[in-house]
Amino acid sequence: MSNIYCAICCGPLVEVTIASKPRSEAFKTARQRGDDSDMDEEKSYDCEIITKEETAWTTMMMLLGFNPKASGPTNVAFLAPFGILFDSAVAVEDSPDGSFTLDDVGNDQHYFECYDVYGDDCPNEEPAFPFHPPCYWILQRRLSDRFGGDLSTDGLATMDKDVLYSVMRSLTMVSRLDIDYGDLEVDFICVDFWHSRAGGEVYAANPGLVEGLEGRIQEMMATGYFRLPKRVELDLSHGVRKDPFQSLPFDILVSIAEKLEDPECFMNWARASWSIHTFLRSAQDSFWKRTIRMQMQWFFELDRCLEDDKLCRGSSMRAVFLWAAGGSKLRLGMKGGDFLRLANRRRIWTSPCKDLTDRYCKILPRHLLGEGGDFGYNKEYSSEEEEEESSENNEEVGGENSDED
After folding, report:
1. What is the largest CA-CA distance in the chain?
2. Residues 10 and 184 sit within 8 Å (Cβ to Cβ)
3. What is the reported pLDDT for 341?
């Protein structure tokens, strides 16, 4: 069993427990026998929701550590691409391509203790941090997006290992980092080992790209799945006593919408204000497409589909938004399928990866902010420039709707 977790997603680094029978069948059989064997099923994941093959990714890990042989103030961190977990330590080997060798980091034990390194027999004085390759990939995508990276390509931001190590080192706890991991139930984390509890299958779902999902979305668009039926909308304006958003101009409303990074916040805004509800109900597809791209930057498969204007023309972008936002909302007891993986990715993107990239950018040397083609951003970032860009975007979207009015 492992008592440490992925530094990025806080998920398991071990093989999780999958029930041998579907949960409903197991419970029914246990009741018929009159025994308590269903307790074992409560401590495992439902095989109808997630399979052993689908959870194999949890045992794959990378390792970020400190190099005591570093000769200068830079290049003090190393990133081992492959690792094997042993209790609270990760064993690593030389990478096949030669990008990482144990000789370079001066560790004869071939393993590194993670997080808590205060034992006398610890082979390393500074902590190491394990994480899944898909989680690291999402962190790179988030950083690429932060600096204007093109998420429609495979280009990723070049991660400065020293800066990332410094961030994680400052957040070290006994078995994970001291950051926001989103909707991860604390009951699923134990100081002794990961609990594979019924209903928590989403936390073991691979957050990487979902093979075939882009094609399935394209087919749904082509067959009219996202066409909203025409119906009479209820007018509840007579029941509104005071709505502070009612008197705001259109461009201000668009600016507020752009500040809401999460679909749940966006939908709560509409629920709280009738004027916002009617504003969004009549918004053009161009507004909804932009909203999807701003608030669902983690939905890479959908973003590629939005590039095809001809394909999108027969779909309501509002319907696409509602489908994606509702389906990817993380909740315990989710059914299996694409959204199980997307919900975990959304959690990782919006909570831990946001926290880590915010901290990363605060200490990243300013001259590196625009360095390298991966960022696609070759100037220092300032709040004034961000405001100017936001103003231009508001005019673009506002003009389309103003013409309609």
Report:
1. 75
2. yes
3. 98
Query: Closest by alpha carbon to 329, among 304, 370, 294, 295?
Result: 295
- Please state the φ and ψ torsions of residue 201, each to the nearest 5 degrees: -60, -30
pLDDT band for position 120 (50/70/90)?
Answer: low
Going by C-alpha positions, the residue among 115, 101, 260 that lies closest to residue 178 is: 115
Distance CA 210, CA 218 (A): 14
Burial of 143 per CB tally in 10 Å (0-12, 13-18, 19+)? buried
Give the pLDDT confidence of 352-387 residue by residue, as tens digits: 999 999 999 999 877 665 543 333 222 232 334 334
Q: To which residue do tokens 């990276």 refer?
A: 149
Q: Mention every residue, 6+ apart, whose C-beta is less than 8 A from residue 2.
A: 12, 13, 14, 85, 87, 88, 193, 194
13 token code pair: 């680094």
* 80 close to 96: Cβ distance less than 8 angstroms: no
**Could you please report the per-residue DSSP string of 62-91?**
EEEEE-TT--SSSS-EEEEEEEEEETTEEE
Tokens of 289: 């497409």
Amino acid at 400: E
Report the distance separating Cα 138 and Cα 131, nearest Å: 11
CB within 8 Å of 245: residues ≥ 6 apart: 253, 273, 275, 276
- Is residue 137 within 8 A of residue 156, CB to CB? The reply is yes
Q: 113 has which bridge partners?
A: 89
**Cβ atoms within 10 Å of 272's Cβ, excluding its own:** 11
Q: State residue 31's pLDDT score.
A: 46
Inter-CA distances, 289 with 40, 221, 328, Å: 46, 14, 17
The stretches of 56-175 forming alpha helices (DSSP H) are: 102-105, 133-146, 161-169
Length of the chain: 405
Tokens 């203790």 belong to which residue?
113
Ramachandran quadrant class, 110 (left: phi over 0; alpha: psi -120 to 50; beta: rest): left
Residues 6+ apart with CB under 8 A from 300: 141, 151, 209
Query: Which tokens in the block code for residue 343?
Result: 């919900």
Strands 129-131 and 111-113, by their bridges, are unpaired
Q: What residues have CB less than 8 Å from 81, skipping those under 6 apart?
A: 62, 95, 99, 100, 133
Question: Half-sphere exposure of 389 toward its Cβ, with a 13 Å CA cutoff?
Answer: 8
Q: Which residues 6+ apart lie within 8 Å of 49 measured at CB?
A: 201, 334, 335, 336, 340
